[in-house]
Design a protein that fits this description.
With 177 residues, this protein is an alpha+beta fold. It has 2 helices and 8 strands; from the N terminus they run αββββββββα.
Length: 177
Amino acid sequence: MAGGGAAPPVKLNDVAVLLGGVLLLTAFVLLFWDPALEMKPPVVDEELPPGSYPTSATFQTYDLSSGDEVIVDLDLIDCPGEDDAGDCGTVSIAWAPEGEALDADDWTHHQMKEGGSLKEEFDVSDSGEWTLYLKTDSEISVDMDVEHQWLVPWLAMFLGFVIAAWGIWHSQVSSEK
């Protein structure tokens, strides 16, 4: 020890319980913590032509496997402008493999009402990094869920459980001796 003292040796089962618990907790948080993204159009000081509103755009890249299904759930919170009657907000969505340019036919455009919601599903055709692009002239909330075909994201949780269980079992067996 740094101060010239001595410490008892750390037992392997205690380390296994600690590492397994941390791995289990971390995997649990990463798999089930699903924050929603909120988008608001920018405030523009200049005069825009009638019927046009400023838009906000964002993109996010995900590492997905072939066969995964992505479900994007959008809620339109507030429409632009003074007149909120009828379909008042526009939301555009596009998916593209990372690094590929988007064409006009890659986009899907949706007219939504204030308080309305939209659920769009995307089936992943090829494994790799995919980018979700969003454009809107309204204030929206976006929630995304990925249904994985394989249990790879669950591997860390199962591994953490096994390591922690082994550490607990080993400590009980060694305390009985």
